[in-house]
Amino acid sequence: MTNLHPHAPLRVALVGLGTVGGGVIRLLQTNGNLIARRAGRTIQVAAISARDRNKDRGVDLSPYEWVDDMTTLAAREDIDVVVELIGGADGPALTLARQCLAAGKPFVTANKAMLAHHGLDLAALAEKTGIALKYEAAVAGGIPVIKGLREGAAANEISRVYGILNGTCNYILTTMEKEGRGFDDVLKEAQELGYAEADPGFDIDGVDAAHKLTILASLAFGTELDFGNVAVTGIRDVIAADIAEAAALGYRIRLVGVAENGPDGLFQRVHPMLVPTDHPLAHVDGSLNAVVAEGNFVGRLFFQGRGAGEGPTASAVVADLIDVARDEYGDAFAMPVAALSPQKPADAGQRIGRSYLRFKVQDRPGVLAEIAAATRDAGVSIESMIQRGANQQDGVLMAIVTHAGEERCICETLDRLAGSDSLLGTPMVMHILD
Ligand SMILES: NC(=O)c1ccc[n+]([C@@H]2O[C@H](COP(=O)([O-])OP(=O)(O)OC[C@H]3O[C@@H](n4cnc5c(N)ncnc54)[C@H](O)[C@@H]3O)[C@@H](O)[C@H]2O)c1
Ligand SMILES: N[C@@H](CCO)C(=O)O
Ligand code: NA
């Protein structure tokens, strides 16, 4: 009989056995035979490591060797690849990555925080030892967007990449929108479903999406990773009334990461945006993510799928292991590190677009005129306006949508209104996706 798997098994050390690590074990146990046919060899978990050996993870770990000290893995000749699923930009994950890559041990990770901060150094180490650094799970979970950009769209000049990059925020915003539930309640549910980061502040403050955007921008544009210049606003200040006003105006609110590379530099921003209901991103719900990339030959690419959770993320990790098993890999960021270009950050103030401004104001004569005067003096033209509530002690809500104009004029409007006792609380600004 023909031996379908003539090659030796790929021996994997799995570090971190939480949501994603547990999922990788379950996936390999379930689909192992099919994967072996596709990879040309068996992918075999040989060793596992995590913080707590005795925790019940709902999966049989008895076949695998337990390793207390993960720092021994890089030097082990009976391990072919190390998978890091513990998380954290620095600390043990980074130490492990450096050790493995320096020792020439292929390394697979889902850790976007580490890559956003240290991706260039790690890619340089991998390049030096000529081995794989793979991270499909780090961006948009199960969506093969790293492969999509690194391989499928590699022939294109890409001018813009944007999308919904955080499953937790998308789950919160869309569940609030559909079910009218409160923020904290839905966040708790997202955590229970395994979507959130160990510190969910990374999700709701937009930092996780910014980590992912940094990686996407580098891949899309061939530029160095530049996390420090991503402007980040999360979803903490989005209130139910914003979702309702946006709906009344024909929009849905989504946390969107946008990166553009142009003559003025590299623009990178993560922020809640108003998305027109006829835009595909407005229909990306729950833990789904979506990434749009615009290439000069391929046109608009739209990737959509589950961005978080055990199954989709494990699917991406194992796809990377299959690449390692097939010896299919190249430069982590699609070109040698030395070929990536440094880029100056673009000035957001000159960006042209429409915006949504929401104020909570005193319900008294002259307030509307005061806001209108501030917009007039800052050169902002109003397209529509809604005021809700009347004679309310704690103020009324005023929502404005502007015509397209320079963003710096919006900032100037807010500066002009700063300190006014007509305003109750900080105004909310969200830009509109066109
Ligand atoms: N959960 C998701 O949907 C998802 C999606 C994509 C990427 N990720 C990324 O995957 C990684 C893991 O996420 P998760 O959701 O599985 O996390 P988790 O908190 O569920 O699991 C983390 C695991 O790492 C172990 N660990 C943590 N610190 C350790 C240490 N110092 N030493 C040894 N073990 C340690 C824990 O014991 C646990 O087994 C993170 O980088 C995360 O950002 C998660
Ligand atoms: N916490 C992340 C996991 C996927 O990277 C999210 O909610 O999208
Ligand atoms: Na992915």
Which helices and strands occur, and which strands form pairs?
Blueprint: E1 10-15, H1 19-39, E2 43-49, E3 65-66, E4 81-84, H2 91-102, E5 107-109, H3 112-129, E6 133-134, H4 145-152, E7 158-164, H5 167-179, H6 183-192, H7 201-204, H8 207-221, E8 231-232, H9 240-249, E9 251-262, E10 265-276, E11 288-295, E12 299-306, H10 310-325, E13 352-353, E14 355-361, H11 367-378, E15 382-388, E16 396-402, E17 405-406, H12 407-417, E18 428-432
Parallel strand pairs: 1-2, 1-4, 2-3, 4-5, 5-6, 8-10, 10-18
Antiparallel strand pairs: 7-9, 7-11, 9-10, 11-12, 13-17, 14-16, 14-18, 15-16
Helix pairs in contact: 1-10, 2-3, 3-8, 5-6, 11-12
Bound molecules: nicotinamide-adenine-dinucleotide (NAD), L-homoserine and sodium ion.
L-homoserine is lined by residues 141, 166-168, 195-197, 203, 208, 307-308.
Description:
Helix 5 (167-179) crosses helix 6. Helix content is 35%, strand content 24%. It is α/β, with parallel strands linked by helices and 434 residues long. It is elongated, with a radius of gyration of 24 Å. The strands form three sheets. Strands 7, 8, 9, 10, 11, 12, 14, 15, 16 and 18 form a ten-stranded mixed sheet that branches. Among the domains are: 155-305 and 341-348, Dihydrodipicolinate Reductase, domain 2, CATH 3.30.360.10; 349-432, Alpha-Beta Plaits. It binds nicotinamide-adenine-dinucleotide (NAD), L-homoserine and sodium ion (NA). The site of sodium ion has 10 residues, from helix 4. Residues 16-21, 50-52, 85-87, 92, 110-111, 137-138, 141, 194-195, 197-198, 308-309, 313 line the site of nicotinamide-adenine-dinucleotide. Belongs to the homoserine dehydrogenase family. One of its GO terms (molecular function) is NADP binding. Pfam families: ACT, Homoserine_dh, NAD_binding_3.
